[in-house]
From TrEMBL:
It comes from the Eukaryota. Keywords: Signal. The lineage of its organism: Eukaryota, Fungi, Dikarya, Basidiomycota, Agaricomycotina. Residues 1-18 form the signal peptide. It comes from Sphaerobolus stellatus (strain SS14). This is Ricin B lectin domain-containing protein.
Amino acid sequence: MFMLSPLFVALLATLSYASPAIVETRSGPPEQDNVCNPVGIDKTIRYFLQSTSIPTKVWQAEEVTADTFNFVDLQSKTTTTSGQALNNQLWSIQPINNGNSFAFISAGPTATVCAGGDGGLLDKVACDGVFNTSMVAQPAQFFISCTTCDAKGKGATNCQIQSAFEGQCALFFSERDNAILLDDCSSSQPNQFWDIVPEA
């Protein structure tokens, strides 16, 4: 009679326990679940870009003149309902390339000036004509991936804002340090998520 050696039996048992058939698998990383892009966002209204982790903090254009601003940082959301302080915190959002990317246009200057992501601190890019042509230089283009997008196109929540030029995401490191800069994208970094909130 044919008999299996004890060593061969042990080897078979080891292989069966290591078989992929008994290993639990997942369909994909959780950060890819329930992601939307605000392709249909309302271009006729202005928005606050508000920290998801600290909702009292928003993007603000700094050193604003009629023609430009110099950089973007994180400031306490204003309670004023009109004027320059409010305008410096409001942004128009223009889809670029059929909504594959987006431009953020500051309401602070009279001229058309976009937020720029070309490494380090968020700064500015002149973007004349962006409203008419939906075209802008690549440093002024950002990808937006959100958990929820408003069905009527009036905002989105829990969004990562990624520079199309640098491939990094907009974040701040702490409430004390109000710089907004680009860094490696991470789904576990709470200060890298933003809500797009329409002006009241």
